[in-house]
Description:
The chain is of the alpha/beta class. Helices cover 30% and strands 27% of the residues.
Amino acid sequence: MNTLNIAMFLEQAARRSPDKTFLISGEQRLTFRQVETAARRFAQVLAGLGVKAGERVALLLPNVPALPICTYGALKLGAVVVPIDVTAPAPEIAYFLNDSEATVLVALESLVEAARGGFQAAEGCQHLILANPSALERSEGLPDSAACPPPARRLAELMAAAGEEFHTAVTRPEDAAVILYTAGTAGRLKGAILSHFNYYFFTQLLTQDLWRIGPDDVIMMIAPGSHIFGQAILNVACAAQAKLSLMARPDMEAFLRTLAQDQVTFLAGVPTLGYYMLHSPLTDQYDLSSLRLVMFSGAPLSPELAERFRQRFAVDLITGYGLTEAVPVTFVTADMKDVPPASVGTPVWGTSVRIVDAAGRDVPPGETGEVVVRGPQVFSGYYHRPRATAEALRDGWLHTGDVGYLNEAGHLFLVDRLNDRIKRGGYSVFPAEVERVLCAHPAVAEAAVIGVPDEALGEEVKAFVALKPGTTASADELIRHCKAQLSAYKYPRLVEFRDSLPKDQMGKVWRRSLRG
């Protein structure tokens, strides 16, 4: 029987470089051996609680050492990790626990109120464990009554009583490793099942071919562990035996200070992060010369921002395209100079990309349609959702829900999401196209476009705009700007100004919250 368990990334790193620093979290430093030992102890804790291979272990943990320790510990047991967004309120936590059928919830002590509320509302979750950021020492920051409400137990105390010897469970390549929740229909998130082989494939591909990360690199993990970006960064750092600088919900000053202090060489985030780095008055106060490679993904990257960022920070800049159900799909490496600026690249090794119409037929180069992909990184389906799985995976191809086109050379260009499109008078308007035009105006810092109900047209195009500091622009001016560059049915008739636009944990503008 073929075996594969991605906990071996950590086990191998601890064997090869036991005393090398792996995790950096503020002033705390943990070596590969320390993290491996702690992960073994956590696996022992889970086994002692009666958790079996294949059962789900939910983690309500930000980017602190407890996250990789508990992640790899659960994987060592053969359990399935279910990372939960740390901003989730109690009702959402209960939904994740019930939907994934998690038997254990590990939460940061400071999140105790939401964790306890979600745990008590969940039907089958049996154990609530509270962790401090390090997972290794008992926190004295909260009194016993608050920090450890019955039936919760402290992780550090459980781990102190556990042994250090644990043999990593035998799992098959196709076995589930992680369930990541991603946007679904009817307002409900769906749990995407990612196997050990999915993780192994994209980790090796990113480490060796695309990001080219080595033992001398220091990688910042700013994306949360509940996001596929964060998951990729954690595993790449471990597989490459690189240092991992953990950032838990930083402000701009803390982010810049940590970049300089930890001498980060590789940074990955959304383009909004690049914009803030270029425009923050704090940036010049810190030495960021250690940066050699930056990746922006998750949202369109304008050629203007890319060029300004390269010149300002003297770094190689890369971009790409992927999604929770398949990461990565396409890529633009730093040495691919012939890739058109607006493209997200060509398919990565072993991956095929097609553009299809509503009937599933291939469309000619240059014509838009739905992006469908096939490759070793594609997920196996949504947990307990056979209908949604059948809709997403058809004839061996993942239907991404993204709209795009391929040029004659096979470069992929993204237009928008199918479910974000606006139907105005029978015409389809894709918000990202309008947003790109708006952001090209010299006064616009960021923009988001949605459809609002209209009695005559069904939907009307409305833009939310935040202006750059010290600039002015009227709604009429922005409408004229768009009208000059877009078809008559596409340009916005309504403009609302905001000081800033709402964003998710990754820093992407959150259109859904603007719909009210």
